[in-house]
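Would you mind giving me a polypeptide sequence along with per-residue structure tokens?
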Amino acid sequence: MAEKNVLANPAPLGLMGFGMTTVLLNIHNAGFLVLGSMILAMGIFYGGMAQVIAGVLEYRKGNTFGVTAFSSYGLFWLNLVGLIVMPHVIPGVSPPDSNAMAAYFFMWGLFTFMMFISTLKKNKALQFVFISLAVLFWLLTLSDLTGNTTITIICGI
């Protein structure tokens, strides 16, 4: 007898983890909030860990795309918090310069564009999410390469 799939859909958890964390960071970049423990905790626990959990649940459901997307973007948030916090807590660790951050965001844009390619046989909303996210990462790359902080404020990261 085949096992009945009784798992809930983990996608709302993963999407909300990424979306809410991104919005809060955008509010910070617009100058309305300081980059304090609230935003960093969101990056670790909701943007990061909740998405990794969603990725694990997608694995259980056999959804390779969901595993890759949620796990990767969850680890993105954990990594981004690490880039912000590590220079303040580990002696001798310097923050990344603008060229390093440009390379970082470029690679995330490239990864996201490849994820977009994977959506071409899926629904249009998913395609829009991934292509707009790829553009966002590349705009952040441009911001770090040019020093134009207005782009960062508009992009929200």
Remarks:
- The chain is about 75% helix and 0% strand.
- The two ends are 49 Å apart (CA to CA).
- The helical segments are 11-29, 37-61, 64-89, 98-118, 124-146, 149-155.
- Residues 1-95 form one domain.
